[in-house]
Amino acid sequence: MAKEPLSEAGLHFDELNKLRVLEPEVAQQTTELKEECKDFVDKIGQFQKVVGGLIELVDKLAKEAETEKMKAIGARNLLKSVEKQREAQQQQLQALIIEKKMQLERYRIEYEALSKVEAEQNEFIDQFILQK
C-alpha cells in the first residue's frame, strides 16, 4: 500500500528494492531497447565493413576493366595501323607491277624492232654474199 502513493508521485521500487523514477516495466523495456540498439549499431558497423569491402572490390574490378579496355583499344589501333601499312604496301606493289609490265612491253617492242633489223641485216648479208 505504500507503493501506491509513491507510484502516484512517479517513484517506484525495482526488483532490488531500490527507489526508481521509472516504472520497473518501462525500465526493463528501456534496457531491452538499449541492448537492441547496441546490437543494431554493431550490425550496421559490420554491414558498413562488408559494403566497404565490396566497394573496394568493385573499384578494383573497374580499374582492371578499364586497363583491359585500354589494351583492347591499343590493339585495335595497332591492327588498323598494320592494315593501313599493308594497304599502302599493296598499292606500292601494284604500282611496281604496272611499271614492270610497261617496261616489259617496251622491251618486247624493242626486241621485235631489233629482230626486224637483224632479219634485214641477215638478208642484206645473204644478198651481198650472193652478189660476190
UniProtKB/TrEMBL annotation:
It comes from the Eukaryota. Its main location: other. InterPro entries: FT20 (IPR028172). The keyword Coiled coil applies. The keyword Disulfide bond does not apply. Residues 72-99 form a coiled coil. This is Intraflagellar transport 20.
